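Reviewer 2 asked us to include a model.

Predict the structure of this chain.
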Amino acid sequence: MILTPSTLLGIGLYTPAEAERLIQVPAGKISRWLKGHSIKGKQYEPLWTPQIDLGDEHVYLGFRDLMEMRTANAFIEKGVSAIAIRRAIAEASTLVDDERPLSTTKFKTDGRDIFLEIVGEDGGTRLVDIFRKQYAFEKIIERSLSDVEFAGIAPGRWWPASRSKGIVIDPARSFGQPIDEETGVPTATLAAAVGAEGSIEAAARAWQVKPSAVKRAAEFESALLQRAA
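Predicted model (structure tokens):
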């Protein structure tokens, strides 16, 4: 289904570059994994179908895609192939009854068995070796779903700098852009205001918010820039 900006409320909207800024997965990889690609004449299908299609042939992610990508990338970084991830998603989608199963609470409990079953069909051992270490699977899941607030079994909100920092990504607010939770103002807007107004205090006055909100936003945006450097 082709979506329009007016129908995106509660879904979130990110380009691959915006997603890279938030989850540190290269935009090129995100595009390949969600659009499919070919290498030496061999075609690789997308890992899953993105939530958003604006009808312009570009790749976009919704909030659920963003959370799913974090988990998929965490496994791939540990040596799990994209082919195994694709098969795991297909298998788990049926068991979990969700098109993006890797980011669900259900996958946290059943994911190990799903992966081991898939590896058994292939006859491979690398993935089995990873999961034989009792801590490995749990650490991958913990990293990819850390600071996620769930609505039922699905991710509802994400606190990208930990809940204590007061910055939240909520698909129902500002199209899923990072916002200061207390004021609802996007962090990028408050951080830019510091430069435009000359100080945190002046930016706070301009936006009629507390200086602490501006400071939180500026620190968050600065941390994103440092991670990208």
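The longest strand covers residues 154-158. The first helix runs from residue 16 to 23. We have added this to the supplementary material.
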